[in-house]
Write a structure and sequence with these properties.
With 384 residues, this protein is of the alpha+beta class. Helix content is 28%, strand content 29%. Helix 6 packs parallel to helix 7 and helix 7 packs parallel to helix 8. The chain starts with a strand and ends with a helix. 33% of the residues are buried. Belongs to the peptidase S41A family.
Length: 384
Amino acid sequence: MILTNLFTASVLIFAPIPFVGGKKIVSNDEYEFLKQFKKMIYVKEIVKSQYVDKIDENKMVDGALKGMVEGIGDRYTVYMDQQEFDALKTHTGGSYAGIGIYIDEKDGKIVVVAPIEGSPAEKAGIKSGDFIIKVNGIDVTAKDMEKAVSMMKGKVGTKVKVTIYREGKGLKDYELTRAKIIIPSIKNEMLKDKIGYIRITNFDENTADSFMKALNKLKAEGMNGLIIDLRDNGGGLLDQATDIADELLGKGTIVYTIDKNGERLDWTSDENKLNMPLVLLVNGGTASASEILSGAVRDFKAGVLIGTKTFGKGLVQTVIDLKDGTGVKVTTSRYYTPSGECIQGKGITPDIVLELPTKDTDREITKEEDIQLKKAIEVIKPKR
């Protein structure tokens, strides 16, 4: 799996180990490194034999592996325990088996932000503002959020009982059958004057297909200009970003990567292009795969970027499944925009720099208040 927050194909790496006469050959550097492992085992035995309370050796191993990888000093290169690796796979997979709700904390309790459209929770009548009091008869509060989420997930077709408190209605038990939940990464609508709007929240396994459905729907409704909103999109699967770019840009290189050995890998687009005015909305939360799409649109001169400077993540990670429920994410290359720019640590400055007022940066704003969206509409109108 390759990430930019980047992700694409699963990768499994096996290194051949040379043996002579039944003995393993190692370099001096490897020998010194192995001596450190002897020290680690010695420290583990000291702690195990002398620590006052019971020790979870699995947690010790996870901690040691985390520390070893973190020692590289790259915050994107990490060892992931089972819980962290599962969370990554859910995020990039774009789906999970559960009841389909967004939740948050309110007044020390777990509150339903919204049910996902078509989910078991929505079909059963669970609503925004409901409080989750129990899961399978076990009391849960905001401090039990992760536990509650874990209990509500499970295999497709299995059942879970959720006790809900609704203001003015009291408590009610819901027995729900878990289903495959697709996490929406695309929202779309037709704005005034037949200007299409597509919001991409992240790039998961379903994003490109969902984007194409939204694009075709808007085209069928007579769209004559498109706004793609990438604000606060932290990235995701590389191939999803390049598949979307392929529909917008025309023929050429969308992005290329170079690894530690100087090997270059190109992602290219065919002659298909949008053939209508295009604006991308970006900000400091626009990162990784979102910056790949933004950089390609900029370099192809296929559209106008509006907003504030993007995050500046130009590194590629490979995810390695260790086959025991854990994994490692390693930075393996840098990516470059079609013009040859690596935006790591620099970001992309939009064509039109326009900051939201400070009062609007920490709250959800309406379309009427969104000056960046208004500017995008203003830019598109004369070009149609």
